[in-house]
Amino acid sequence: MVIDRIARLPTFEDVQAAAARIAGHARRTPLLHGTPLDERTGGRILLKLETLQHTGSFKFRGAYNRLSQLDAAERAAGVVAFSSGNHAQGVAAAARLLGIPATIVMPADAPSVKMRNTLALGAEVVRYDRLRESREEIAARLAGERGAVLVPSFDDPDIIAGQGTVGLEIAGQAAEAGFAIDEVIVCTSGGGLVAGTALAIHALAPAARIWSAEPEGHDDHRRSLASGRRESNAPGTRSICDALLAPQPGELTFEINRRLLAGGLAVTDAEVRAAIAYAARTLKLVVEPGGAVALAAVLAGRIDTRGRTVAVVLSGGNIDDGLLAEILSTSAAE
């Protein structure tokens, strides 16, 4: 039964069901428009502010959709997840709301704000060395020992469907404002957010093109979409974007994304830093590195925005105070 559930590709109807399930628990985050980005880019830029979601990222959506469907026995046994921080917080927050014990496997070098917030939400944290240990193996062992449910960060139909509610909201909010979307750019790691968003956008705004956005060196989706097969990142490749360091696209997510995405975009860490500084100084928004790559792609001109309506997902805002201060102090004002 578990194998069948994991092998099943989610559909637009699953996204709609997830929206009903998380209603009243997840926030319908704003779709901001009419900012200085329009003049700078020559287009209409719509910013989906998942930085304002519970726990500061979109991850709460998928986590709540997955955990809320557990039966009484599964809830009592608890859940185990692995994450660099945003999925950790999403699972911890959903678990606390539902009264479920949660254990999160996190890298020892995870941003302190993410580690601190996960612990504050009541989860048990098991630290590991991301360069020498496998978080998947540690999490699988813990789940097996405890009889707990393993909650993947992206390659799961209920997680994908929950994240797809971002796309559902983008399409609805754009229509309410009278905008026809031409492009959607989504921050991408394992691909759950962009896959779910693509399911919704393809159904509700089929003329729109959907793009993944990743840091250079971890642009496995960009390369995979170009080659037609799942490509891996070089071992040990690092980036400031701690939330986007999955080794390769997920099996389920890539099966969706290879059919629905127009392609992939990649940006440098320097461009991500510039985007974070621009967001803070000009847009008055706090965005973490992994949550800023889609904005960085727009600011760096990776896609032609002139005369286009472009939805950009700001997927997370959990940045350490020290890093934000360092970026602002070293980035030139624009």
Cα-atom Rg, whole angstroms? Answer: 18 Å
Structural class: alpha/beta
Largest sheet: 6 strands, mixed
Oligomer: single chain
Provide the descriptors you would attach to this structure in a database record.
334 residues, alpha/beta, six-stranded mixed sheet, four-stranded parallel sheet, 16 helices, 10 strands, globular, disordered N terminus
Verbal overview:
This protein is an alpha/beta fold and 334 residues long. The protein has helices spanning 2-7, 12-22, 37-41, 59-67, 72-77, 86-98, 112-120, 135-146, 157-163, 165-177, 192-204, 220-227, 251-260, 269-283, 293-299, 321-330; strands at 31-32, 44-49, 79-82, 102-107, 124-128, 149-150, 183-187, 209-215, 263-267, 309-314. The strands form two sheets. A six-stranded mixed beta sheet has the order 1-2-10-7-8-9, with helices on both faces. Strands 5-4-3-6 form a four-stranded parallel beta sheet, sandwiched between helices. Strand 7, helix 11 (192-204) and strand 8 form a beta-alpha-beta unit. The longest helix has 15 residues, at 269-283. The radius of gyration is 18 Å and the shape is globular. Mean pLDDT is 95; it is low at 1-6.
Short description:
It contains 16 helices and 10 strands. By secondary structure, the chain is of the alpha/beta class.
Topology:
Layout: H1 2-7, H2 12-22, E1 31-32, H3 37-41, E2 44-49, H4 59-67, H5 72-77, E3 79-82, H6 86-98, E4 102-107, H7 112-120, E5 124-128, H8 135-146, E6 149-150, H9 157-163, H10 165-177, E7 183-187, H11 192-204, E8 209-215, H12 220-227, H13 251-260, E9 263-267, H14 269-283, H15 293-299, E10 309-314, H16 321-330
Helix pairs in contact: 2-4, 2-9, 4-6, 4-9, 6-7, 9-11, 10-11, 11-13, 14-15
